[in-house]
Design a protein that fits this description.
Helix content is 75%, strand content 0%. α2 runs antiparallel to α4. It starts with a helix and ends in a 7-residue tail after the last helix.
Length: 128
């Protein structure tokens, strides 16, 4: 029980640092376009989750539904790459400053890493 609590505390601390970096990248440089990164990283795990649930609705079928899972992984990968590429594109177009881009990318990666770590640590194991 203590290891689970320590994991939740550590993950929440890292998540708070990620949100802090993204919010500071917007607030310090007076440009709130960097907050779009939060939306992409929060939405990124949803295709994996939805396609994983839709892939095998019947417990009696062992194989099948790999195309749906692959599509979910593709969509998740697209959103993660978009979360990294969007601040780079905005900095290239001079809509945001370079330090805001760095803070936004690092904060976004911390947010997505925390979401993935949480789902890996607290995954329900299915024993059949």
């Amino acid at each position: 029980m203590a290891a689970g609590l320590k994991t939740i505390i550590a993950l929440s601390f890292v998540l708070a640092i990620g949100f802090l970096l993204v919010i500071l990248s917007a607030a310090l440089f007076h440009n709130f376009l960097t907050l779009l990164v939060v939306a992409t990283y929060v939405i990124a795990p949803l295709p994996n989750w939805i396609c994983g649930k839709c892939a095998n609705p019947d417990d009696f079928i062992g194989e099948g539904g790999h195309a749906v899972v692959d599509f979910g992984r593709f969509c998740t990968g697209f959103l993660v790459v978009m979360g990294i590429a969007l601040p780079i594109l905005l900095a290239h177009c001079a809509l945001i400053k370079f330090p805001a881009m760095i803070m936004s990318i690092v904060g976004g990666l911390l947010i997505y890493g925390t979401i993935i770590s949480f789902s890996q640590f607290f995954r329900e194991e299915q024993d059949f």
